[in-house]
Design a protein that fits this description.
- By secondary structure, the protein is α+β, with helices and mostly antiparallel strands.
- Helix content is 44%, strand content 13%.
- The strands form 6 sheets. Strands 3, 5, 6, 7, 8, 9, 10, 11, 12 and 13 form a 10-stranded mixed β-sheet that branches.
- It starts with a helix and ends with a helix.
- The structure holds S-adenosylmethionine.
- S-adenosylmethionine binds next to strand 16, helix 17 and strand 22.
């Protein structure tokens, strides 16, 4: 901060010059402040800023912990008020999307010690750059919260010393309004912060108490024993704080007001305060169950609803409500058999209720999906266009988690029987999925810069940790499902099997005292190692432009995260809405490893780089990479150069065909002659040559065009019977020997084939056009499932662009 500005501010606040000297020590210590990283930096600028930031971080880490300089509370409050005003102004404005940057990937502490085993600490005893293990800070808020990268406020301890508190990843606070924050944490809220970290902020100059894990925060009710011997030096009541109720009825009506305003979490907190006063206050518990249900805190709903149902003194109306909530929570947790039972129990009291009939039918449909793996993919695809959040059951086909010692994490997926191409292996609903559209509604986008990978994450990647944290917070029994995933080389290896055995009963949720500890640093590593970043199918149709303008999408899935990578994968994944389906693209033998692509780059070097960015620290050992490495560095470099040349428009259609042939020869010379037909980079050269030949309208040129197109497909690894001789034998067919290209997703080969269909129709060869159209349909259905109808929907834009829609409709 500019010292002159500080001096002006202090004058306004009536502070003395000795206060100013204290402050100058702080504010002019700009050399100790971290380098700025801000939105709008050019890529080079950002690279340099990240490098400088890392250097600063290393230096800052070496500075021993030291007492914090005293910053007058008025200064803290005044600085904070301006941050709060910025958020309020942003809320009032109708314009623009604001981007915030935050730094991730540095070590951070999350406490695992219960509050009762910790000793009290005060600000005066705390040191900057220190984690205060074995201690807890008791404090209360003396300002309203404001939301920046984290939610932030000013707190004071019982001795009246103030400091800034920043809480990251707090449930429901990711993009919340000031109204939500004020309801959640009114001024005067009392917290116990377990093992607080006092540190220099990631950006800025004033030290902060930084809480990364929301489970380190315990909300303290007025009657808590922890407050018994505590008196607040600045008075029992914080100025401007609302009057706090301290009766069960008071908390109930507060909760009900929040509930009516759709402020589910503040409502749940209010009910929890009431339940702390009287754990048998059944109405509050029943209401909390509903608030949890609205927030997706299903474990909390279930525990509360069951307890209400088992209360012998409860009225029939409340018991029935609780039973319905229990059934809904069972359904949402994927226990469809239990859900059906509960809904049927409820139905006994309301035999004609149409909603419950619908829920029973849905429970039965989900149970059937889970048993059979039969889904209506076409319907799901259509539904995903309006709501990505699809209602389906998970399904596990002929696969299991197995040991693969040589892979990071030591596990992988193996086939439990011989598998055929296109067979459905797994259907999994996202644990969380985030599209950039979800974030844009919030008028604010957060971008995190990862110090481990030295790159800026996309907005949806930056949000994933907060989303997963919230889900675990409200569903604590899911904790081990997430923390059983691989977290990378700096963490102990995950358990050899997956999923872990989960508690039989759901765990309770209490926002005043969270049930499980969430280690945020480990969760960041887990998310980074296991997330999926491709765009769901409805938003990236073949041909045309992206439909929903989705520029980034991140999905966090559980069992799908157990698949290892191969550049020549034998399975492929696609997302319809937030549902991932994984299918075999090659025949797979029982006990063989089943793999997916983490990248579909055609060049060895680009694949290597992409895999490294996804934390694959060892070189990929698939046969394609081994063959590529055996070609030697010089050949690989030359191949890379030629491919770049091609992609940058180095071969123009106006050039003579001989230039294309020479190019092919040069590129081909980078592959050892002994290599098999799969040569992904060659596909690009064949595609370019085919495009050139499609301009020349002679029969010979057409034949050559077909030959080049077929080579483009074959070099990617597509196998269809008699593909190479189809011109003469006309026996092109999809048979049990057919397989999808192992090197790439279905999109590119489908594009190539539909182009070929278009060219055949152009010369009125309907027979071959039909044959190839059927190959395209087979390809899409094998990768995505469904039938002709789904094929037509997925390829609709491309079929239109190529004037193929009517033809496809008539022959499929
Ligand atoms: C999403 S996890 C895959 C499951 C993981 N193997 C496990 O045990 O949980 C991704 C990590 O698995 C490892 N991995 C994936 N594919 C691999 C491969 N082909 N070779 C070696 N390690 C691989 C890498 O360490 C990568 O960071």
């Amino acid at each position: 901060m500019d010292p002159n500005l500080v001096r002006d501010m202090m004058a306004q606040l009536g502070l003395t010059s000795s206060d100013f000297d204290t402050l100058r020590g702080l504010t002019s210590s700009a050399p100790n402040a971290p380098p700025r990283i801000h939105p709008g930096m050019a890529p080079d600028e950002l690279d340099t800023a990240i490098r400088n930031y890392k250097k600063w971080h290393e230096k800052d880490r070496l500075i021993p912990p030291e007492p914090a300089p005293h910053i007058p509370v008025q200064i803290l409050l005044s600085n904070h008020a301006s941050a709060r005003r910025t958020q309020e102004q942003g809320e009032a404005s109708t314009e623009g999307v604001y981007t915030r940057m935050t730094i991730s990937g540095f070590p951070k502490h999350s406490s695992t010690v219960p509050l009762e085993d910790l000793r009290l600490i005060t600000f005066a005893q705390m040191l900057v750059r220190n984690v205060h293990k074995g201690r807890y800070l008791l404090c209360r808020t003396i300002a309203p919260f404001a939301r920046m990268s984290a939610i932030q406020t000013v707190i004071e301890d019982p001795e009246g010393i103030a400091g800034v508190l920043s809480i990251y990843n707090f449930p429901t606070a990711f993009h919340c309004s000031t109204k939500h924050l004020d309801s959640l944490f009114p001024i005067g809220s009392i917290f116990a912060i377990r093992e607080p970290t006092f540190k220099m902020p990631a950006q800025g100059t004033d030290p902060i108490v930084r809480v990364d894990s929301p489970t380190d925060i315990q909300l303290i009710g007025a009657h808590s024993t922890i407050l018994h011997d505590v008196s607040w030096r600045t008075g029992s009541r914080v100025p401007r704080s609302p009057t706090m109720t301290d009766t069960v009825e008071g908390w109930k009506s507060k909760g009900n007001i929040y509930f009516k305003n759709s402020l589910w979490f503040p409502a749940a907190v209010a009910y929890s305060h009431g339940l702390e006063l009287d754990p048998n206050a059944t109405v509050l518990r029943a209401n909390r169950a509903e608030a949890y249900l609205r927030m997706g805190f299903y474990s909390g709903t279930l525990v509360d609803a069951r307890r209400v149902c088992s209360d012998p003194g409860v009225s029939n109306t409340i018991r029935e409500k609780a039973l319905y909530r229990e059934a809904r929570a069972e359904y949402a947790r994927g226990d469809y058999v239990e859900a059906e039972k509960r809904f049927k129990e409820w139905q006994q009291f309301h035999p004609e209720d149409s909603d419950v009939k619908e829920w029973i039918a849905r429970s039965q449909a989900r149970s059937k999906e889970r048993r059979t793996g039969v889904y209506n993919w076409t319907r799901l695809f259509e539904m995903s266009k309006s709501d990505v959040n699809l209602d389906v059951a998970d399904y596990q086909g002929p696969i299991e988690v197995s040991r693969f010692q040589h892979r990071g994490g030591g596990r992988g997926i193996a086939a439990t029987k011989d598998i055929t191409v296109g067979e459905l292996l797994l259907v999994s609903k996202a644990f969380v999925s985030i599209s950039s559209d979800d974030l844009k509604n919030a008028k604010e986008v957060m971008v995190s810069v990862d110090l481990i990978t030295s790159k800026a994450n996309t907005p949806t990647q930056s949000a994933v940790v907060s989303y997963v944290t919230e889900k675990i917070y409200g569903n604590p029994d899911l904790h081990d499902l997430v923390f059983g995933l691989y977290a990378g080389q700096y963490y102990p290896p995950p358990p050899p099997s997956y999923p872990p055995t989960l508690p039989c009963d759901p765990l309770p949720v209490n926002p005043l005292s969270p049930t499980v500890n969430i280690d945020i640093a480990q969760l960041e590593a887990i998310c980074a190692h296991n997330q999926f970043n491709s765009i769901p199918l409805h938003a990236q149709p073949l041909g045309g432009v992206e439909k929903d303008n989705i520029d980034s999408w991140t999905g966090f899935y559980l069992l799908p995260a157990l698949f290892n990578h191969s550049c020549v994968a034998n399975a492929t994944w696609t997302c319809i809405g937030d549902v991932m389906a994984i299918r075999a693209t090659q025949p797979i033998k029982a006990s063989e490893e089943v793999t997916l692509h983490y990248t579909t780059e055609l060049s060895y070097e680009k694949r290597r780089q992409m895999l490294q960015q996804q934390y694959m620290i060892t070189l990929c050992d698939c046969w394609l990479c081994r063959d590529d490495r055996a070609d030697g560095k010089t050949a690989l470099a030359k191949r890379e150069e030629l491919v770049d040349q091609l992609l940058q428009g180095g071969l123009r259609r106006s050039q003579p065909i001989s230039s294309f042939r020479t190019f092919q020869k040069n590129l081909s010379s980078t592959y050892a002659v002994t290599r098999g037909s799969v040569r992904p980079a060659m596909s690009l050269a064949h595609q370019a040559t085919a495009a050139k030949l499609s301009d020349r309208k002679t029969l010979t040129a057409f034949k050559q065009y077909v030959e080049e197109t077929i080579k483009a497909l074959a070099t990617l690894g597509l196998v269809v019977s008699n593909m190479e001789t189809t011109q003469s034998s006309q026996t092109l067919e999809v048979s049990e020997f057919s397989r999808l290209p192992p090197t790439i997703s279905f999109h590119q080969p489908t594009l190539i084939i539909l182009q070929l269909v278009h060219e055949y129709l152009d010369i009125d060869d309907r027979l071959n056009a039909t044959r190839w159209l059927r190959v395209a349909k087979w390809l899409v259905n094998a990768a995505v499932g469904g039938d002709s109808e789904l094929f037509m929907l997925i390829t609709a834009d491309l079929l239109d662009e190529l004037y193929l829609r009517e033809f496809a409709r008539s022959v499929l």
